[in-house]
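Subject: Malate dehydrogenase

B.,
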Amino acid sequence: MTTPVNVTVTGAAGQIGYALLFRIASGQLLGPDVPVRLRLLEIPQAVKAAEGTAMELDDCAFPLLAGIDILDTPRAGFDGANIALLVGARPRSAGMERGDLLEANGGIFGPQGKAINDHAASDIRVLVVGNPANTNALIAQQHAPDVPVDRFNAMTRLDHNRALSQLAQKTGTPVSQIENLTIWGNHSATQYPDVFHATVAGRPASELVDEAWLAEDFIPTVAKRGAAIIDARGASSAASAANAAVDHVRDWVGGTGSSWTSAAIPSDGSYGVPEGLISSFPVRSANGGWEIVQGLEVNDFSRARIDASVEELAGERDAVRELGLI
Ligand code: NAD
Ligand code: LMR
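Prediction pasted inline below.
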């Protein structure tokens, strides 16, 4: 049998964990021929709940599931990890200031980054889902100086999928007919879903929708979808977030083909995004790595919105720097 791939999932006993682990174990992350060993990293108080999830994973008798370990220290959790999905994070509670939130998450993602640096496998790939995802990814990456910087991503694939779905509904076209949408910037309400290079059944999307709809309907709907789900469900998106994490890693490892997708990856300075910020870009993947799609024309409508989201990311980076978290 092929050597199993070690997949670490943090926050494994949480909502997203519950939607994610079964998809990984069934082969949807890495394909039907790749056995996986799951490493569930939780805080000690949630280990019992993680054990319950592991019992259910056992009860599925997934042929590709080579084993499950439940761990409560980052060192053990990331030992030998090939893929790490960092889902567990400190949510914002009532009255919490932004600095407090960044600091609380720095206390999680700094040590996790160090443990990844010291104990993960040399081919480690890290996807940060826990919010504030881009800046948590930056914190983890900055604590892992021996890991190539491009192995740290943050998830904007859920935003990308939301944008696909909204455009499909507006134009009465199946999502499979839409290509080359982009999410730029931060996974936050400032993100910019860009349709100016997208095609809908081969036609430019910009011929099918007008700027008023983009500005007043599409962009706010996509950017505030997370809050709308929290309002409706009383809890943040879970199954759709897990689905997006599967999409992201599957494409990162397996490649995208000619159409592009969106992922928050360390900027190389493309499109005026300061180098090092973990910002969402149009990306393709080949040979196990992302490449930013180059040469796209950015109009004034897009430029202002990309700049606003990138400015927010730079502000978060400066704040964590001032707090001594990076
Ligand atoms: P949840 O509260 O149901 O679960 C979080 C889990 O993380 C809990 O089981 C908790 O015990 C665990 N945890 C906390 N600190 C940990 C640590 N230091 N190490 C290991 N585990 C730890 O939350 P959820 O609904 O699963 O969401 C998780 C995160 O994902 C939240 O930050 C949420 O905002 C974020 N999220 C991001 C996206 C995205 O698109 N990027 C979408 C949805 C949710
Ligand atoms: C989402 O986009 O659904 C989440 O990031 C929302 C949240 O704050 O958990």
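Residues 131, 158, 226, 229, 236-237 surround (2S)-2-hydroxybutanedioic acid (ligand 2) (CB under 6 Å).

T.
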